[in-house]
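Loading example: each entry is read as two labelled lines plus one structure line.
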Amino acid sequence: AQKITQTQPGMFVQEKEAVTLDCTYDTSDQSYGLFWYKQPSSGEMIFLIYQGSYDEQNATEGRYSLNFQKARKSANLVISASQLGDSAMYFCAMRETSNTGFQKLVFGTGTRLLVSP
Amino acid sequence: DTGVSQDPRHKITKRGQNVTFRCDPISEHNRLYWYRQTLGQGPEFLTYFQNEAQLEKSRLLSDRFSAERPKGSFSTLEIQRTEQGDSAMYLCASSLWDRGPTGELFFGEGSRLTVL
């Protein structure tokens, strides 16, 4: 079974600074996908960034970048120039494929990020 | 707004009552998922529809839970004889078959259930 581990229950960062949210994963698959989602207090899960296991370059989307270290099985999210609106829960997820080919996302327990002025 | 919508947003019920949640996915999306999220946890997969067919169900989905997606459009999730352990946020997500390898899910804002 695949597993996602987020060891930081909470993180604090000052506005305009960068912050790294940790994520490690466990899988025996050769092909997999890693995702980061943001969940503000409203409850909606907002897709941030995706990294495929065969992607040679780290994914970037605006202020978000994914530090993908395949050998270490880590996929840390880096948020640059933090903004007050970045305060939210952040979930790392992996796309899991069953023997029947069905795919679903498996999520970690999340990290709560608080950005202070 | 053309995102995923869920109704109701909040539901408080007494133990033993039945509740039903509705999800309207993004109109062209043929894949629909239900997830459950308890406090301090990430979302956990419950069930999956491709068009109107329910193709996957988690072991978390006891026989008190039933989900439908008639005509491959909106979906309902019904919980019969609710228990306090059913208290959670129920999230609906949709995606498009030919989205490509990314396969990102678009989530609604969830339906929060409190069972007293």
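Chain A has a mean pLDDT of 93.
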